[in-house]
Amino acid sequence: MVCLILREESGLQEEAWCSVLNTHCPRLFVWRVEKFKIRPVNENDYGHFFNGDSYIVLNIYSKGRGLGYDVHSWVGSKSTPVS
Questions:
Q1: Structural domain for 32, as ranges
Q2: What's CA 49's distance to the chain center, in Å?
Q3: Model-level pTM?
Q4: Per its UniProt record, what Gene3D superfamilies does this chain match (predicted)?
Q5: pLDDT at position 60, please?
């Protein structure tokens, strides 16, 4: 239980999530995992995934009067824990 809480707390410190917290309308976010850090992917590069990398994709969409969230991870076939 303590490990789970620590992981959750460390995740809240991730700078990449700041832009998500300020989003109040449908939007797509893509991040690349780079040496245990989350780096935003340029919108022009959305849809271009490389097999040596890992990604997190967040789709924020309209759901009733609010927003819905779909989170996906993509791990390239040649991705390593360090990349």
A1: 2-75
A2: 14
A3: 0.77
A4: Severin (3.40.20.10)
A5: 96
